[in-house]
Amino acid sequence: MQRTPHHRSRARRGTAAAVAAGALAASLLGGAEATARPYPEPSAPSTASTTLSLPSPPGGANVRVLVFHASATAESPVVDAGIEAIEKIGASGPAAQRFRVEATDDASVFTKPRLGKFNAVVFLTGGGDVLDSEQEAGLEAFMEAGGGFLGIHDAARTEPYSSWFTGLVGARPAAGGPANVQRATVEVGDRTHPATKDLPLQWKRPDKWLNWAQNPSGDVHTVARVRESTYQPGTSANGWDHPVSWCRDYDGGRSFYTGMGGTADSYTETDFRDHLRGALLWTTRLVRADCKATITANYAAERVTQPNQPGQSDQIGEPHGLVTAPDGRVLYIGRGGGDNSAPVVTDWNSPDIGKGQGQIHVYDPKTKKVTLAGALTVFGNKGGGDELVKNEEGLLGIELDPAFRSNGWVYLHYTPHSKINRDTRTAERRVSRFTLDLETNKLDLASEKVLLKWPVQIHSCCHAGGGMAWDSKGNLYIATGDNNSSRFSDGYSGNNPEPNFKGVSFADARRTAGNTNNLNGKILRIHPEPDGTYTLPEGNLFTGEEPDEGGGKTRGEIYVMGVRNPARIAVDQKTDILYAGWVGPDAGAPSTTWGPAKYDTFAAITRPGNHGWPYCMGNNQPYRDRNLPDPAKPLGWYDCAKPKNESPNNDGLVNLPPVTPNTIWYAPQGGAPDFPRDANGVPSYKIAEQKLLLPWLKGGGQATMNGPVYRFDATSESTDKWPAYWDGKWFVGDFYDGDQPRHAVLTDPKTVGKGGLPVHAENLKKIVPVGANGIRNLMDWKFAPDGSLYVLDYGRGFFTSDAKSALWRVTYKGGEATPAAADLARKAEQ
């Protein structure tokens, strides 16, 4: 390694120095002509430009890295440790990834033609105004020629008057941050970039942590964040989204910055050296990497359907679910509400009470046309329900057969109007198979094969569920709501046994979700057969023939019990993990008498089990029991480890499977509330004592909308596909677009399905845009085979469709990883 003498010049920038930088740019670019850009005023954007006739990247097969460590402040003790670490990184590893290192604190190096021999420049610590205008112009020309930049820790304090350098480094430190070394947890969200792919998901390490005057997320590609709940972030804390390392393609070159490395000991850590190694491999052009994946401007959201023509549903019904076909077509359903001009019958004496149309539409991206494939007459156009103004039955779910491309089979989950009983106010829910004509996009309603049917009460709204999904073994999962009223329990556990209509309880979810002999409030798993029947796969929660308590008290279709209203489910066919979300009750705050507030819930499910409702929610937080003769008086707390169904409305087992903690839960107060517990394991349920385990979440008017797990297809030639950064991430959202979730999260394989919390979350609200003219009411979202994302916006009314009801498509426009394969410093054959 070569080190050059100190350079302490503080020359102010001027026109003469800027002109001199033009000669440097030319030398960096192998003789290309260049015009220097004048130095911008403080905080003002640079308006100058550099004209390059023959741009060619600096450096070459003989890869070199310049480590620059000048500082206008006190000399940092980490410099020697940092230089030594970078030297060892450059001299180790595969021969094709090695590089030479030179270090200097002499800023005049930026005005010398020999800067052009370097592939990357590292600003190691630093701070203050260390480059004059000619030197800064040299650095700009270096980047424009395809050079690489790595900034470490206090490099973010360097050149404080330069807006161009602010863009290069990405963000500036805020005042009020902690000055001491603290141990914290780094969430490593990018599992593909060479700087982070081999790091722990949750990387616990000591360092000096910087806060940012402005959060760069969305303008840069963040590869890692520091979790503020694990240390004291000071008065200028950034919150849950606290980037610590990021990168971007900048001004013709590549820029990587890490806020870590503020201590000498950092450079002795194997993981931190691996972090630097990956950053250097990319900035030197030794490897390619994607630093565009989370930059907001690289995504485009387009509404692909138009408003309906007056009085028609030619484009869309009341949006309720979608599925993408192997050839790219999108099939989406309308639940049953008509447009606002459609008559709504609420009189139980009328044979047409609640009659609606559940439409199936097909969008073809090749023609950009919508076809109304067919419509089922359903019970679900408002009508019925507690207030005789709403109803959640109707056409609830859609899936395509795994062999859809050849057989055209479509599975629909719905409530046929022809099967309602107006006297008992009950109905039949069913899952049926239909055949779609693949040429005309028309559904043959006469082809119906009813696979599965079961009774539901329709006297009182709500909670119908509806989602469906396949696993890799050809098993079909079916989500059903608890068929229970939201009233009569003050918004806490839906366990009031008293209200009934003609003997059918409608406010006691122990009759349904908590009942082993009832198909409501469940996620069912069946194996459809070619003849339109189904068999039961091995490994469901019950066999249907359990000998306990006299037999005949279980249903073999049940895979998951204890869910309240699971509208959306998904299965990652790479892992066969089931992902589900369900809406919670209505209590706005926890109660020391009755239990937790409303928790909307997401769960990553790896095995059959009981997920708690109406006994427990969240991470096994129990409710209070109630029973006759006076359900207004609380009884004991439920035992989540040994729940019992002692409801007079139960016809299943009394002793239930233990409750499995859920992955994500959120209340109006925030994400994943947790409380101190007494000797019996009962939480205090006092807001003043709660701890929010997932600070990126907020509730309010909330309704979970579970999404898919994205899987990147490297063989796809689609130019619209989302990049590999999102591979394996689980998309979770909410119907509403305020502070509620619209995120992609990472789970830890070691704890997934066991109640482990997500380890990282990425905000999607600028990519899947919110707001009045965006996707305001998210109803469903799925990835297409081409890697683009389709999203249903419900619209701005309820139980109807309106001008904002729409199907959207979100595509990625960021292009390939950088540098281009042809610009790699060493080609693969070398």
Would you mind describing this structure in some detail?
The protein has 830 residues and is mostly beta strands. The chain folds into two domains: 15-44 and 53-294, 3-Layer(aba) Sandwich (Rossmann fold); 462-812, Neuraminidase (6 Propeller), CATH 2.120.10. The chain is 8% helix and 28% strand. It is built from six helices and 42 strands. The strands form nine sheets. The protein has a ten-stranded mixed beta sheet with strand order 1-3-2-4-5-10-9-8-6-7, sandwiched between helices. Strands 20, 21, 24, 25, 26 and 30 form a six-stranded mixed beta sheet that branches. A six-stranded antiparallel beta sheet has the order 27-28-29-33-34-35, with no helix packed on it. Helix 1 runs parallel beside helix 3 (133-144) and helix 2 crosses helix 5 (270-283). The protein is globular. The chain starts with a strand and ends in an 18-residue tail after the last strand. Mean pLDDT is 90; it is low at 1-55.
N-to-C terminal Cα separation, in Å? 24 Å
Please tally the β strands and state the result: 42
Beta-strand portion reads 25-35%
Can you tell me the CATH class of the largest domain? Mainly Beta
Task: Let me know the average pLDDT.
Answer: 90
Domain module count? 2
As a whole number of angstroms, the C-alpha radius of gyration is 30 Å
Oligomer: single chain
Sheet of most strands: 10 strands, mixed
